[in-house]
# Entry
Amino acid sequence: MAQIINEQDIINAICLSQAYHKKIQPDEIIVELMYDDETGFGADVEIAGQAEILDTPAMIGALRVWIKDVLHGDPFSTGIELVLDDEEGIIAKLS
# Structure
Protein backbone atom coordinates (compact mmCIF):
# COMPACT_ATOMS: atom_id res chain seq x y z
CA MET A 1 0.00 0.00 0.00
CA ALA A 2 1.28 3.45 -0.90
CA GLN A 3 2.21 5.92 1.80
CA ILE A 4 0.05 9.07 1.86
CA ILE A 5 1.17 12.61 2.62
CA ASN A 6 -1.85 14.61 3.75
CA GLU A 7 -2.74 18.16 2.71
CA GLN A 8 -1.27 19.79 5.83
CA ASP A 9 2.05 17.98 5.36
CA ILE A 10 2.16 19.08 1.70
CA ILE A 11 1.77 22.66 2.95
CA ASN A 12 4.48 22.02 5.56
CA ALA A 13 6.76 20.60 2.85
CA ILE A 14 6.34 23.73 0.73
CA CYS A 15 7.02 25.95 3.75
CA LEU A 16 10.16 23.97 4.60
CA SER A 17 11.45 24.07 1.03
CA GLN A 18 10.73 27.77 0.54
CA ALA A 19 12.27 28.63 3.91
CA TYR A 20 15.44 26.78 2.95
CA HIS A 21 15.71 28.58 -0.41
CA LYS A 22 14.76 32.04 0.91
CA LYS A 23 16.75 31.71 4.17
CA ILE A 24 13.76 32.49 6.40
CA GLN A 25 11.73 30.61 9.00
CA PRO A 26 8.97 28.26 7.72
CA ASP A 27 6.37 30.02 9.89
CA GLU A 28 6.93 33.22 7.87
CA ILE A 29 5.29 31.58 4.84
CA ILE A 30 1.60 31.30 3.98
CA VAL A 31 0.59 28.53 1.56
CA GLU A 32 -2.74 27.73 -0.06
CA LEU A 33 -2.99 24.63 -2.25
CA MET A 34 -5.13 24.70 -5.36
CA TYR A 35 -6.27 22.55 -8.24
CA ASP A 36 -7.51 23.63 -11.67
CA ASP A 37 -8.78 21.27 -14.38
CA GLU A 38 -6.65 23.02 -17.01
CA THR A 39 -3.41 23.79 -15.16
CA GLY A 40 -3.40 20.99 -12.58
CA PHE A 41 -2.02 21.32 -9.07
CA GLY A 42 -0.43 24.46 -7.71
CA ALA A 43 0.17 26.48 -4.59
CA ASP A 44 -0.19 30.17 -3.77
CA VAL A 45 2.77 31.11 -1.61
CA GLU A 46 3.04 34.41 0.26
CA ILE A 47 6.30 35.54 1.82
CA ALA A 48 6.53 39.00 3.41
CA GLY A 49 3.62 40.25 1.32
CA GLN A 50 5.08 38.93 -1.94
CA ALA A 51 2.96 36.35 -3.76
CA GLU A 52 4.32 33.51 -5.85
CA ILE A 53 2.56 30.62 -7.57
CA LEU A 54 4.20 27.21 -7.55
CA ASP A 55 3.35 24.73 -10.29
CA THR A 56 3.17 20.94 -9.97
CA PRO A 57 6.91 20.31 -10.56
CA ALA A 58 7.80 22.84 -7.85
CA MET A 59 5.40 21.13 -5.44
CA ILE A 60 6.96 17.74 -6.25
CA GLY A 61 10.40 19.27 -5.58
CA ALA A 62 9.22 20.49 -2.17
CA LEU A 63 7.87 17.04 -1.39
CA ARG A 64 11.26 15.53 -2.28
CA VAL A 65 12.85 17.78 0.37
CA TRP A 66 10.19 16.59 2.85
CA ILE A 67 10.86 12.94 2.00
CA LYS A 68 14.60 13.43 2.57
CA ASP A 69 14.54 15.65 5.68
CA VAL A 70 11.38 14.52 7.51
CA LEU A 71 10.65 10.98 6.34
CA HIS A 72 14.37 10.13 5.96
CA GLY A 73 13.70 8.39 2.66
CA ASP A 74 15.39 8.48 -0.72
CA PRO A 75 13.74 11.45 -2.44
CA PHE A 76 14.70 10.38 -5.95
CA SER A 77 13.69 6.73 -5.86
CA THR A 78 10.28 7.57 -4.39
CA GLY A 79 7.41 8.00 -6.84
CA ILE A 80 5.15 10.97 -6.02
CA GLU A 81 1.64 11.39 -7.37
CA LEU A 82 -0.53 14.37 -6.41
CA VAL A 83 -4.20 13.42 -6.11
CA LEU A 84 -7.36 15.44 -5.55
CA ASP A 85 -9.32 13.37 -3.03
CA ASP A 86 -13.01 14.10 -2.39
CA GLU A 87 -12.62 13.70 1.38
CA GLU A 88 -8.97 14.50 2.12
CA GLY A 89 -8.36 17.36 -0.33
CA ILE A 90 -5.01 17.41 -2.10
CA ILE A 91 -2.81 14.49 -1.05
CA ALA A 92 0.40 12.92 -2.31
CA LYS A 93 0.73 9.17 -2.82
CA LEU A 94 4.25 7.85 -2.44
CA SER A 95 5.39 4.61 -4.03
The chain is about 30% helix and 40% strand. Strands lie at 3-5, 29-36, 40-47, 50-55, 80-85, 89-94. The longest strand covers residues 29-36. The first helix runs from residue 7 to 22.
